[in-house]
Fold this sequence. Notes:
Elements: E1 3-7, H1 11-23, E2 27-31, H2 34-44, E3 48-52, H3 60-70, E4 75-80, H4 85-94, E5 98-101, H5 106-119, H6 148-160, E6 167-170, H7 177-186, E7 195-199, H8 205-213, H9 223-226, E8 231-235, H10 242-261, E9 271-276, H11 280-285, H12 291-297, E10 300-303, H13 314-329, E11 335-336, H14 338-346, H15 352-366, E12 371-372, H16 379-382, E13 385-389, E14 394-398, H17 404-422, H18 427-434, H19 438-445, H20 447-456
Amino acid sequence: MAKILIIDDESAILNLMAKTCRQQGHDITAVQTGKEGLQQLDAIQPDMMIVDLLIGDMNGLDLIRYSEEQYPETQVIMVTGNGSIETAVEAMRLGAFDYLTKPFELADLQRTVELGLQQKGKPKPEPSESFQGVDITFSSGNMIGESPKIREIQEIISKIANNDSPVLLEGEFGSGKQMVARSIHNSSSRKNAPFKVLQCSALSEELLEMELFGSPTSRGQSIFGRANGGTVLLEEIHVLPKRLQSKLDAFLEEVNSRRMSGSITANMDVRFIASSAKPLEKCVEDNNFREDLFYKISIIPIDVPPLRGRQEDITLLANYFLQRYSERTETEMQEIDKYAQRLLESYKWPGNVGELENAIERACAFSEGNRVRPIDLPPKVAQKVEITDEDEKTTHHLPIGTSLSHYIKKQEKIFIRETLKYNEGSRERAASMLGVSIATLYRKMGLKLEKEKILRS
């Protein structure tokens, strides 16, 4: 049993982390302010401190700095909703063991706590070598969907989960590539080992190189070393600098050779997955990506479809996000009324799964009576609904979620404007055709401005 101090000003998150760590058998002290955190840090000198970046009265980095100076044996995990890469780098340099981004799965917190406690008492690398990577923890661990394409991906995962061949995931930003990678990890024999993610676009070339390959004196601190026995997802690999592409190619070649000879080392015993928002084959053709590396990482290619290509999954995903929001905030799970559901299923979701998740979280914040209504959805979702008029064989965009009077005024203005265009700007003929007076035309449209615009168009 370890003594763990948890500091977070969000009571729901604090209580959830405390409950999770108690279930692991640890002695937990949970506080909501930096001042209380400092007092408890001095009083109990914990084995581990889990601290939020922004606590209200203090910056979490200051607590990490104080802990490292006064109690260097205390392992530190930073938790934040900011997702700041610069903050992650600074936290690691100050001596934090690991870094999690809200929202995270409780299983990831449990694994990180146990790994940190296992490292307690072992020598830490020098500060200049202590950056341990930005390990983004994704909140969804399994594939969600019943569309044919998702069923196809699920079938592929079931076949290759325990095959250590590299996987390449291609698809639009936000389409769920991380979810696919996590599902591969969770379905494999490596599921109890770390799952680490590195975004190639998030770091400078120097930091990216150190994270991928470590420094000459602390190679075990690379992301591969920290994921020993688990899975590494390299995101946005299409932006990896050419020089590092060459080093990664050589590293993967060595991994293959050692695996075949049975002499695999700790920093190489991982499942490698890469993802790209751009077709890598096209990057190869444009001479922006090494052809030999492309073939090494694409042994098992998986195309992840955009959300608009699997509309039957939208409601399933929305309900999943509702459930997760409920668990995170410890509130009753909300329902989506049928009108809001129609809007969700009709919207094209250019931002894919990520945009849907944000829309659901916003709706939960605005909803009343535990029911998500059209008015609770983002305006861009509610105002881009297409319906087909079977009589006229035309498609209309209806601004669902706005008031009837606003809609009528807007349509009236459009109709008058088009009538004016038809009559070549003649107010008299337009008014006659519409059956209204010129005075009514002026009152309804502010015609002087409108006419000038029309005549210029």
